[in-house]
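Quick check before the chapter quiz. The format below is the same one you will see on the exam, so make sure you can read both the input and the output lines.
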Amino acid sequence: MRSAQHILITGAAGAIGSALAARFATRHPEARLTLVDVAEAPLQAVATKLGPRAEARCWDLTQVDALPALWRNLTGTRGAVDVLVNCAGLMDILSIGGTGWSRGSTLLAVNLLAPLRLIDLALPDMERGACIVNVSSMAGRVPIKGCTYYGGAKAGLAMASEIAHVELAARGIRVVTVYPGPVSSGLEAHARGQVAGSLVAKYIPTGTPDVLAGKIVDACDRGAPRVVYPGVYGVAYALDALAARVTASIGPDPLR
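Here is the expected output.
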């Protein structure tokens, strides 16, 4: 990938998002960084640590209809975005009934609708060499009990991202789809706490944000179509029919 000029990362206050911000800042030292999250204080702390090139923007991604105005304001002051990283995510492990529509629609907005709207806003100004990174989940690849809304949203994002990878190749725009298994983060700790009594939750292989961030930045620079991490989940990605049967049979029961 050519040297990036303006990198936008959602979920930048979280463990994976902040690790991505640090990695991109190192790999593209001249680029402007726009860090987006709803958690203002930790977001500002990440931006301050990265220096004057980084700017914090407190956006609520559940308010999808507000994104066009926020985008116009951003690009009007900082210029077009040539690397868009959709990393923000919310996860619950709850039964369908226990989730309810109010929480379910929030999960859909943050995990699916907002990323697609941001892609829609970024694309008109993207040129050859630009890159879009969509952080999906292995929960969007295999069925995990309690993840109806989260898994459905991540599955939708993954399919949209894989299609965009094929479609935008003709324009020289790279699209990377990321399929993380559990990675140490606030999101992962929250989800693990909802199934704390499960042996699966206790022993399931878990990665680290910094390693994942390095793999994502490398994939963006190389134009690799996807990242699956930790590596053991590559088997589940390749053999998703078998993995689906396994997770459906031994996965922990969700909270009600």
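If your answer matched, good. The mean pLDDT is 89.
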